[in-house]
Amino acid sequence: MCQRIKYLNQTQNGLLIRCSHSENYQLSFKNLNFNLTPDELDSFIHFLLKIDVSYWEKEYENSVFEKKIPIPTLQTNFIILIDRYELSELICLLDITKKKEYLTYKDIRYPLNFN
């Protein structure tokens, strides 16, 4: 394993790591993977924090898609769609200033037997 990689945060569906050599970040969330510079990461965080969830859910209430919140990309024919829970988790994943918390049994998605 590379000694230059530092794990910054992890959620149920994502992981944020930083390379101390290049100073860049790698964000993996569900089936998405982002390689970001520090400035790009800051811009992405600010963009996510400004999203008006109620507006987008109202705007796309008649959409055939289950996920209503768009994240535009530079590629004009590609938009990432997420729902309010994914947005919340993504914001938590990117909040590297907060104290780390332990997972509870509710965060584990497989059958548990309490003996």
Q: What can you tell me about this protein's structure?
A:
By secondary structure, the protein is α+β, with helices and mostly antiparallel strands. It has one domain. It is built from 3 helices and 6 strands, in the order E-E-E-E-H-H-E-E-H. It has a 4-stranded antiparallel β-sheet with strand order 1-2-3-4. Strands 5-6 form a two-stranded antiparallel sheet. It is globular.
Helix residue percentage: 25-40%
Structural category: alpha+beta
Total DSSP E strands: 6
Written as H for each helix and E for each strand, in order along the chain, the element string is EEEEHHEEH
Radius of gyration: 16 Å
In total, the number of domains comes to 1
* Global morphology: globular
The residue ranges in which pLDDT falls below 50 over 5 or more consecutive positions are: none
Mind summarizing the main beta sheet? 4 strands, antiparallel
| Percent of residues in beta strands | 25-35%
How many angstroms separate the termini? 37 Å
Overall pLDDT? 87
Q: Which strand order does the major sheet show?
A: 1-2-3-4
Counting DSSP H or I runs of 4 or more residues, the number of helices is 3
Keywords:
4-stranded antiparallel sheet, 26% strand, alpha+beta, globular, two-stranded antiparallel sheet, 115 residues
